[in-house]
Specification:
The chain folds into 2 domains: 170 residues, Rossmann fold (3-Layer(aba) Sandwich), CATH 3.40.50.1970; 209 residues, Dehydroquinate synthase-like, alpha domain (Up-down Bundle), CATH 1.20.1090. It is 49% helix and 11% strand. The chain contains 16 helices and 8 strands. A hairpin with a 4-residue loop joins β6 and β7. α7 packs antiparallel against α8. The protein binds 5,6-dihydroxy-NADP (NZQ) and zinc ion. Zinc ion (ZN) binds next to α7.
């Protein structure tokens, strides 16, 4: 069992009336002039943006707005946000949206307080010592950024998508009103659930399988999300299932389901190259990679894959054939992905065959020019990455 530090400082306001607390929460965490950061159109169309701005105004809090964050958020808008915050004297970032808006907000929060080029943090060339406080009004449960220490940004120059993690980026508060997720299209609902399940699976598939409580919690999260997604897809305005998913996105990623274990994250690393190159939805990219990663790493901890098959995917345990049971678990996951409209390989994800050159380019980027590895259950070198991408091509 691995020693661990547990740090989850984000205050959560959850429920139908939660948005009404926005001004008092901003004040509580010291915000006097806020950047209200948002995405394309959903928060405008639903009236959420107007409501948040009105509540801030009524609470006597100054604000400026910056919209236009796209999925796989871009570095150029981060630069624009940094500039705007400096001009306006912004001291608090409020992201109204999903993972992309929050991640863009985190990048701005780091960039405002330093002369360093913010991309250098993502490149690992330097580390920020401070950042502006950040918080969110969440509209899509998926990335878990509302409580996580991570931000993932795409540099349009070269289509490079990189993450940076640091506890200073843990948001001060997150407002979650499940009703705001009723408008999510089925694809985003399914991709979001796929992502949150993967956040827990990246921690579940580990060699450290002696922290039983963590494993039990992880299985409960996975089973509940697996059921709730069908209810939400069937009835998008079902508060009960939307609420499970809204909370599940945070529970899956703030660290609880990884206490005491060595984490993996290879599927995420491999996927970031897909969404960096093809601008696809992150959750769908994960579904396209995971079955191939799982088949490739199965024997690193076969009993864990058997446990997943039986306890999460409801596969009958054939005690005479653990490998067969484990493989049937992976097949059951593929059926689940298809049932919720997710791809199970790259061809289904991008709608055409991926070329050998594109695979080589992803391997080069994922291995940081053949200098880096990824993964914990099995450490993946460039040749392993290439094998998995080829297995996943479809
Ligand atoms: O831009 P708008 O119009 O708001 O549309 C968004 C966007 O097109 C739409 N949407 C959001 N809320 C909605 C809605 N549509 C209707 N009704 C609503 N209530 O959904 C689309 C996707 O939004 P996005 O913010 O991109 O989704 P998500 O939360 O999945 O974030 C994905 C990003 O997070 C990164 C991913 O790599 C990706 O860039 N990740 C961040 C992590 C972190 N910071 O800890 C961890 C994750 O593993 C992930 O890598
Ligand atoms: Zn993810």
């Amino acid at each position: 069992m691995k020693d661990f530090n547990y740090y989850a400082p984000t205050e959560v306001a959850f429920g139908k009336e939660s948005e009404d607390k926005v001004a008092s929460l901003v004040k509580k965490y010291g915000g006097k002039k806020v950047l209200v950061h948002y995405g394309g159109k959903s928060a405008v169309k639903s009236g959420l943006l107007d409501k948040i701005c009105t509540l801030l105004q009524e609470g006597g809090i100054e604000y400026v707005t910056l919209g236009g964050v796209v999925p796989n958020p871009r570095l150029s808008l981060v630069h624009k946000g940094i500039e705007l915050c400096r001009q306006e004297g912004v001291d608090f970032i409020l992201a109204v949206g999903g993972g992309s808006v929050i991640d863009s907000g985190k990048a701005i929060a780091m960039g405002v307080v330093t002369d360093e080029e913010v991309w250098n943090f993502y490149l690992g060339k330097s580390h920020p010592s401070a950042c502006l406080p950040i918080a969110s009004v969440l509209t899509i449960p998926a990335a878990g950024s509302e409580m996580s220490e991570s931000t993932v940004i795409t540099n349009e120059d070269g289509g490079v998508k990189l993450g940076y993690s640091d506890n200073i980026l843990r948001p001060k508060f997150a407002i979650m009103n499940p009703c705001r997720t009723f408008t999510l299209p089925p694809y985003q609902t399914a991709a979001g659930v796929t992502d949150m399940m993967m956040h827990t699976m990246e921690r579940y598939f580990t060699k450290d399988d002696d922290m039983d409580l963590t494993t039990d919690l992880a299985e409960a999260v996975l089973r509940r999300m697996k059921t709730a997604v069908f209810d939400a897809l069937k009835n998008p305005e079902d508060y009960r299932s939307r609420a499970q998913i809204a909370w599940g996105g945070s529970v899956a990623h703030w660290g609880l389901t990884g206490c005491g274990v060595e984490e993996d994250w290879a599927t995420h690393q491999l996927e970031h190259e897909l969404s960096g190159m093809f601008d696809v939805t992150h959750g769908a990219g994960l579904a396209a990679i995971w079955p191939s990663w799982a088949r490739y790493t199965l024997h690193e901890n076969l009993s864990r894959f058997v446990r997943f098959a039986v306890n999460v995917m409801d596969v009958p345990n054939d005690f005479t054939d653990p490998e067969g049971t484990a493989l049937r678990g992976i097949e059951a996951m593929e059926r689940f992905y298809h049932a919720i409209g997710m791809p199970i390989n790259i061809k289904e994800l991008i709608g055409r065959d991926i070329t050998d050159e594109e695979i080589q380019e992803m391997v080069r980027k994922c291995s940081r020019d053949y200098t880096a590895t990824c993964g914990g259950l099995k450490v993946l070198h460039a040749d392993d990455m290439e094998t998995i991408y080829k297995m996943a091509r479809g």
